[in-house]
């Protein structure tokens, strides 16, 4: 059994946020086996409610979730308690997004798939220090890249669909139709 990071307390609290329930629960079980007190959430709202009750020492946040995404959650968690060490998980390996996450308060980032040992290693590195990128990385499909770009612009516009449509050069209704669809698979 691997012991928790020596920089953390004897029973560190961890917030694990991912919309994929199976992945989230598998990671939560692995962290519990390593001595962490784990709270899990499947959305921005659940995560913020948990963190407001008891601020975690560390957090693992999925970048892309339905509704409010991981970047917004990083910002909110950092505002709630700037000492929380946040790792962002991304299935898309976007360096620009990872840099943005670190600017918003994330301690580090990791590409998916990541296991508990990868996460513990990322917590032990310096803030923003590059992590190992898996060699079998598959770039996202064009549809997925478009969806991510739309989400990023929408986030930059504070959720204002009209402004996002203007910046994207789309009609507002066309953008609304695109937003109603669930994100395309890689």
UniProtKB/TrEMBL annotation:
It holds the Pfam family HTH_8. The modification 4-aspartylphosphate is found at residue 62. GO terms for cellular component: cytosol; protein-DNA complex. One of its GO terms (biological process) is regulation of DNA-templated transcription. GO terms for molecular function: phosphorelay response regulator activity; transcription cis-regulatory region binding. The keyword Zinc does not apply. Keywords: DNA-binding, Phosphoprotein, Transcription, Transcription regulation, Two-component regulatory system. InterPro entries: CheY-like_superfamily (IPR011006), Homeodomain-like_sf (IPR009057), HTH_Fis (IPR002197), Sig_transdc_resp-reg_receiver (IPR001789), WalR-like (IPR039420). Residues 13-127 form the Response regulatory domain. CDD domains: REC_RegA-like. This is Two-component system response regulator.
């Amino acid at each position: 059994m691997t012991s928790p990071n020596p920089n953390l307390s004897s029973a560190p609290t961890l917030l694990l946020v991912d919309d994929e329930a199976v992945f989230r629960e598998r990671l939560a079980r692995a962290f519990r086996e390593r001595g962490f007190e784990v709270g899990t959430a499947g959305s921005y709202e659940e995560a913020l409610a948990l963190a407001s009750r008891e601020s975690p020492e560390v957090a693992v946040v999925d970048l892309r979730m339905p509704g409010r995404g991981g970047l917004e959650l990083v910002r909110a968690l950092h505002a709630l308690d700037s000492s929380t060490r946040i790792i962002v998980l991304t299935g898309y390996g976007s360096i620009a997004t990872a840099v943005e996450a670190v600017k918003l308060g994330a301690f580090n980032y990791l590409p998916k798939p990541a296991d508990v040992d990868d996460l513990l290693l990322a917590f032990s590195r310096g803030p923003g220090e590059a992590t190992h990128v898996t060699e079998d990385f598959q770039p996202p499909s064009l549809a997925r890249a478009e969806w991510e770009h739309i989400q990023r612009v929408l986030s930059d516009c504070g959720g204002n669909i009209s402004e996002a449509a203007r910046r994207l050069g789309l009609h507002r209704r066309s953008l609304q139709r695109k937003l109603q669809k669930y994100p395309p698979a890689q």
